[in-house]
Amino acid sequence: MVVLEYAILSIKSPHTSDTPSLKSGLQNALQVLNKASAPSGAQFSLFQQIENPQILHLLGSWTSVEAHHAFLPSTENLALLEEVKDLINVDLLFHAGMDKSTLPLDAPCVAFARHLVKAGHKEDFATIWGENSHHLKDFTEPYPLVGGWRIDGVEEGIGGEWVQFSGFKTVEHHHEFAKTEGFKEYAKMKEFLERFEVVHAKTLNW
């Protein structure tokens, strides 16, 4: 089963997503990553955060975590890291148990949500999510709601991290969900969360 790679990148000042050297560096990185991860059957994608355009979100697939780790010390990877080292920081990188091809990445606005579950409550969270996630699924149609557990690097003291992707027309469209009756049921999962983070992003097109 393939795994999802999720990386959060921050663009170093004074650069922006329009900086020519950043564009070429990231375009080259996508080509290298796509070639290395080709057996997974999915292409890498870059998204620009709406709340903060200096933050980029990288999504891709590997046949396994081990396959990605085998690529990290390669000449190709070290060369692309050297090319962009003065342009971006890698703030976070981990893998999750989901297939990138199932994510709602064609939506105009994609919500990237991280649910950090309280220690000892992973099963409780999974149960209540299973019972109430249909409220958000119905609201986001025709875009699917897809989630999976983080595989590696979960914060110490956290029971697990549920990573979730949902598609919306706009950020405001997502905010409208909080005004629905279904949200009251969906929000019951907060009881089992240590922390919750959500941002919105759009496909980065040059």
What does this structure look like?
This protein is α+β, with helices and mostly antiparallel strands. The protein has two domains: 3-100, 2-Layer Sandwich (Alpha-Beta Plaits), CATH 3.30.70.100; 103-203, Alpha-Beta Plaits, CATH 3.30.70. The protein is 31% helix and 33% strand. Strands 4-1-3-2-8-5-7-6 form an eight-stranded antiparallel sheet. Helix 1 packs antiparallel against helix 3.
Give the SSE order as H and E letters.
Answer: EHEEHHEEHHEEHHE
Estimated radius of gyration: 17 Å
Class by helix and strand content?
alpha+beta
The total of beta strands comes to 8
Major beta sheet summary: 8 strands, antiparallel
Percent of residues in helices: 25-40%
What percentage of amino acids are in beta strands?
Answer: 25-35%
**Shape summary:** globular
Return the average pLDDT rounded to an integer: 97
Give a nutshell description of this structure:
The protein is of the alpha+beta class.
Task: Give keywords.
alpha+beta; 8 strands; 206 residues; Alpha-Beta Plaits; 33% strand; 8-stranded antiparallel sheet; 31% helix; 2 domains; single chain
What does the secondary structure layout of this molecule look like, with pairings?
Layout: E1 3-11, H1 20-36, E2 45-49, E3 55-62, H2 65-71, H3 75-84, E4 88-96, E5 109-118, H4 122-132, H5 134-140, E6 145-149, E7 158-168, H6 171-176, H7 181-186, E8 193-203
Antiparallel strand pairs: 1-3, 1-4, 2-3, 2-8, 5-7, 5-8, 6-7
